Amino acid sequence: MPVITISRQYGSGAVEVAQRLCDVLGYSYFDKDLMVRVAAEMGVSEEGVVDFSEDTYRMRNFFERLFGRRKMKPEEPKTPLPESALDVETLSEADGINLVRDTILAAYDRDNVVIVGRGGQAILREKPGVLHVRLNGPLGARALRVKERSGMSLAEATALTKTKDQAAIAYLVRFFEIDWNNPLLYHFVLNTGKWELSDVAEIIIDALAHLRTVSEGYLD
């Protein structure tokens, strides 16, 4: 059966939809655990698996990612990062993205998998037998969903939702040079503010039944 990629705005319910698809279709959900299993088949140890994705991506420098952000003391000089550290940052990001790309391609070869985020719509863009779906939603509805599942205030949930969206945009532009809002990347786009998540899953399942591949891997 076809592979499914789901691109989503934060809080649009993509994880819940993906889990529903896996339950109904018997698919595997491409998460860190599946990455570890697929990477093991490729000869990569669990310690070497870094799940580099939109959810964890931040526009931070190498030392901030390695040690965490810390306040500078008033007398502490603000020295620039050495060139060698910047080289390590670039290599670290490149290695992380390459591992994500390789494991997604390996999961595609295994078939029957749902891939949420991680640039799946770009990595598998030219592959046949892939259904690309985009889930959007109004900011208010998405923030409310985040609030309900996290217990944070609505203001906090709204701020987090905006931050996650911006991180995803930066991630996809930097590493895959795509605009995630480009409708031509997907077979269809759904507004989860107007559909129950169970109905969204059913729409995707119905679409799978009508998926016909051509040489470019798109629907007729």
Fold and architecture overview:
- The protein is an alpha/beta fold and about 220 residues long.
- It has one domain: 3-Layer(aba) Sandwich (Rossmann fold), CATH 3.40.50.
- Helices cover about 50% and strands about 10% of the residues.
- It contains eight helices and five strands; from the N terminus they run βαβαααβαβααβα.
- The chain has helices spanning about 15-25, 30-40, 60-65, 85-110, 120-125, 140-150, 155-175, 195-210; strands spanning about 5-10, 30, 115, 130-135, 190.
- It has a five-stranded parallel β-sheet with strand order 2-3-1-4-5, sandwiched between helices.
- Helix 1 crosses helix 8 and helix 6 (about 140-150) crosses helix 7.
- The model is unreliable at about 60-90 and about 215-220 (pLDDT under 50).
